[in-house]
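Researcher: Let's try something more involved. This one mixes different molecule types, so please make sure each is placed in the same coordinate frame as the others.
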Amino acid sequence: MSAQSTAAIPSADVWRPSQTRRRWSGWLFYGLAVVSTLMGLVMLGALLFDIVTDGAGQVDWHFLTNYPSRIADNAGLRSALLGSLWMLAFTAIIAFPLGVGAAIYLEEYAPDNWLTRFIQLNIANLAGVPSIVYGLLGLGLFVRWLALGRVVLAGSMTMALLILPLIIVASREAIRAVPDSLREGSYALGATRWQMVRQTVLPSAAGGILTGTILALARAIGETAPLITIGALTYVAFDPNGPLDIFTVLPIQIFNWVSLPQKEFHSLAAGGIVVLLVVLLTANSLAVYLRYRMQRRLQ
Amino acid sequence: MINLRIDAQTTDAVATPSQNGQTDAILMTRSLNFWYGSAYVLEDVNCDVRPREVTAIIGPSGCGKSTFLRCFNRMNELIPTARLEGSVVFRNRDIYDRSVDPVEVRRQVGMVFQKPNPFPKSIYDNVAYGPRVNGYKGDMDEVVETSLKRAALWDEVKDDLKKSGLALSGGQQQRLCIARALAVQPDVLLMDEPCSALDPIATTRIEDLIRELREQLTIIIVTHNMQQAARISDRTAFFTVAESGAGVLVEFNDTQKLFTTPTDPRTEAYITGRFG
Amino acid sequence: MDSLKSLPRAHPAADAAASEPAGLDFTRSRRDSLRRKLVERSVHAVLFLCALISVLTTTGIVITLLGETILFFGEVPIVDFLTGTRWTPLFASKSFGVLPLVNGTIVVALVAIVVAVPIGLLTAIFLSEFAPARLRSVVKPVLEVLAGIPTVVYGYFALQFVTPILRDIFPQTQIFNVASAGIVMGFMILPMMASISEDALRAVPRDLREGAFALGATRFEVVSRVVVPGALSGILAAVILSISRAIGETMIVAIAAGLQPQMGFDLLRSMETMTAYIVQVSLGDTPQGGIEFRTIFAVGTLLFVMTLVMNLLSDLLVRRYREAYE
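Model: All components are placed in one shared frame. Result:
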């Protein structure tokens, strides 16, 4: 913009001040956006740092193999770890086939009618139901109505219902990513629908389905509220040995320690969190690795 | 429809099956009408396909060539809104009859698609796929070898059958798909523009293969390439879009005759390049 | 070869096929065909039942909650429940006014939203409008980690890290307080807020942006006057979903916000939320079947209805912006 502009165009002086302000507001805004993005990252860093400094010292072999105790020095995670393991195993056994089955139905079989749309709406809404409401469902349905009691199986069934929408959504995405040309190729060779699904769609979608399932199970490992609601115990000083034993899980044990007033138990809680985060990190790495390997195998 | 009247011999054979219950045609359509939802795609198509010949289907895009082809193995019904009237007769049996299992039809009427679509499995498993889903219990190695030989691919892949089908070149992939289709021993092979995604050299190889396969089975090929139709087919069907918006069969005749002395002005316009 | 001939062959071509080197033994009889159809039908039915589980789950939730809630309202008038300001079902002098719990829930959720919405939206804008693709591909998954951390961990962090800091700044802060729980919850829902907003921002067509740039707009002006308004219904959906998530969140408040039902907006004091109350009763030795026990189902029903309404609303908004641009 030069001062020699013709008279018809406003002189440069008219433009300049607002130009400067525009530039400044632009930079300010950019700065705010960067700072905001950093805030999330900084918070994550602070959280991990705080927990590791508080808790890493607690984690040793005794911590993993001792039962919880009133004496902080002797307390450990043994029953909680075993309880989480049992709960997780049965959750997987229940949720995986149901979730993948529902996904296959919705992607490969479902006609476009009101019932299908209703089911889809249902799944979308279930994903937004607070986890503690699932706890109330488990309490009313499995613990009391089926009279299972506060056992592993009741917890697993509750957790299975909770993570079912996650598995369904992830599996549907994986199934949808399988190109139609493969389905046509399979049909053209005289495959029935189920043969087509089993031998063509599922192998191609396996990576995505597995990844989604592992991530959903990771969610189940960390969930606390529904299990408290169905009445999983906070103090268990014996090994759960099957689906019909009463139990506790890792996050409930952590919650229990956080709730105690003594400072030593807070360190134990931090130690428990370190263990929990390591377990989750392992599960997530496994999911990422599986996805990577499946992608490679397909190429 | 003029097209059928041209070939009196075929028409007669259809109308009056000979004494032993056989007709000259292996596949034929009668008053075939087809819709996708409310879109009218094929209008009153009557067409007879002779066995062990190559029948080419040509016509401008949007004339329903591919849809017509897919009527022969009931692939259209995978689309929920598809609707068909009339009949498609394969070996004297209406394949759209309620008692007919589409799976059985597709076993006997194979198909090769526009874009090669090998499964993300090994070459061996690709070829063995059809026999497996159809409950074949014999020597699978032999079927795989024979099929790959028939598709002229054996020499290139025989040392590497465990390699992924996706690792092959485009032309090889398409021949793998042909081998895959041949492995279930179909009587008819439908080909939907099988060379449109291939380079000229790969195309030549597929065309040679089609000529060889003609000795053994019936081939119906949709092509957008008139030279290709002229090079490889015995008879050619010309489709175009009618005023109704649907595809109609305009003329069906020996390839030689259709390209040199077309009887319908629309055919002549198309093959001389004045149309489409 | 015999097996080939057993297939229905009406044409001489078939005999030629029979002379092929590999005869295929397709033992396909009528019985096989029937059996195959039976397998197909059964598989279809089983898969349908799997899909139906979701409907059964919803039904189960409604029946479980409503059953106990109706019994509860048999003893406590619904008006008293919804309008009362004293919540003391576990005391000797019982009072069943749920408003203190609702108050606590809403105040915590508001704190969380005040943290999550501006930071989440600006993060989304940074990721969709400013960040180069490679930076974005690193930052996004790292932020997603925040969403994957168990809520009990956030509870610990709020109580052991954020609360002491707050107490240094505002000495009157109680050990259990709304502010610390709300702030930490804000960071927990931040990734969801950011990711849904980013989807909405990205759905704004390129040409709209280019049109604005072509008129000489700066990037800030394009974002603030074209992109954000264009994505408004999606951003609103993200906000509503964030509120819904904050209302339903349990462990952070159970650990860090305390268990004292009270009205008011003092962020530095302890308050009890609806979810924390359910945890409190579940942990206690309240006998099943009594009126105290039923309160958790009544509170649960209210919680379920509140989140459901918000989820449906956000779903509606997302659908609207998808329709606008697709």
